[in-house]
Structures are given as structure tokens and as C-alpha cells.
Amino acid sequence: MSALFSDEWMKQLMEAWNAEPDVKDKLADINFNSVICCGFKGEDNPRGVFVVENGVCVRAGSWNGESADWDMRATMDDWLKWVKKGIGMMGLGTAYATGKLKFKEGDYKAMIKDPRMAGPFVKSFGLMQQVGADELG
Fold this sequence. Notes:
Elements: H1 7-18, H2 21-29, E1 34-40, E2 48-53, E3 56-62, E4 70-74, H3 76-85, H4 89-97, E5 102-105, H5 108-112, H6 115-131
Parallel strand pairs: 1-4
Antiparallel strand pairs: 1-2, 2-3, 4-5
Helix pairs in contact: 1-6, 2-6, 3-6
């Protein structure tokens, strides 16, 4: 297994994303384009970046200064818990409401109200579970 948000881990997530029609194809249907970043609370910069064009992840890896449309942050413990056990719609709502999942960029409330985006968003967390992760080295 790779370290969470490492260049290798982000590339594995990209492969899983592009192989999952309920994420890639559903987002292609709405011409979804975005730069998605992930990282840890308390850090200025994200760790990983995920570039999506028309639903397809075209590039993923270590963050290198890209400007984020979405920037999600949580503690290492919370990320690893979600990667290990998965998280559904209710769990994500609770994580957001309690501040365990923060959005430095992006409008969670608007996204979660749009089923065309909410479903793939929840499924993307399932892909993280599929990939698995180790703590940072």
C-alpha cells in the first residue's frame, strides 16, 4: 500500500476513478471539470491533486502549486478511518457538520444538494477505500 496522498497513491486513485463508471461517466454527463486537492487540517498546502476533465481524471499526484476548485481537509486519523472503513452520504454529512471534513475551497452544501454530483462524490470515497493507504512515512 502507498502512503496517503503520496504521488503514487494519487495515481492509484486516478486509475480507480477512471475505471468506475458511476464516478467517471456520471460526471462526464454533466461536463464536470475540476482541480480537486486533498490534505490535512492545519497545513497551509494540500498534499495531493486530482485534475478532472469532463469526468475523467487526466492527472493526479503530489500537489505542485495548482489552484484548487475543491480543497478537502481532515486529520490524518479521520482520513485513514474513511479509507479503511469507507463512508456513506450520512457519514459525510456528519463529518462536514461536525467539522471533521473541511472544505478550504468548494461549496459542499451546493454540491451535496445536486444528486448528479453528490452520488459520484460519495462513491469517490469508496474508491479511496478500494485503494487503501498507509500513514505518511
